[in-house]
Amino acid sequence: QVQLVESGGGLVQAGGSLRLSCLASGRTIAMYHMAWFRQAPGKEREYVAAISFSGGSTRVADSVKVRFTISRDTAKNTVYLQMNSLQPEDTAVYFCAAADGMGSSPPATIGRYNYWGQGTQVTVSS
Could you give the CA distance from residue 6 to residue 125 in angstroms, rounded to a whole number? Predict the structure, then answer.
């Protein structure tokens, strides 16, 4: 099975940028749909972005479209989330997740993801 470790979170001012990384080990990310979710205090975990196991399909939640981009580097076995124009409402713990690579389009539903990292905190100050 795959193990996931997120990094790159931190404190940033509104309007700033961060790039989160998700380093996978144990198996190649090319076997999995990969996604980012986030969870703000007192709220449910929500989908942010996903990339298919082939790398040919990406999708981003409407709430962050244009500002956030998901990508991957299979040579580094790493998935990235580039976050621009950050706002205080983006403050959350961000989680990387992997789903078995079935279907061409990566799922956006949390229940489809079998493997999770521990999360990385992103705090955006106003």
Answer: 21
Rounded Cα distance between 98 and 25, Å, is: 12
Q: Looking at this protein, which amino acid is placed at residue 2?
A: V
Location of structure tokens 């998935």: 79
Number of residues assigned to the chain = 126
Closest CA relative to residue 61, chosen from 31, 42, 83: 83
- CA–CA distance, 79 with 38 (Å, rounded to integer): 15
* β-bridge mates for residue 13, sequence order: 125
| 105/2 Cα distance (integer angstroms) | 20
In order along its 126 residues, the chain shows pLDDT tens digits of 999 999 999 999 999 999 999 999 999 999 999 999 999 999 999 999 999 999 999 999 999 999 999 999 999 999 999 999 999 999 999 999 999 877 788 999 999 999 999 999 999 999
119: three-class secondary structure by DSSP: coil
Burial class (CB in 10 A: 0-12, 13-18, 19+), 62: exposed
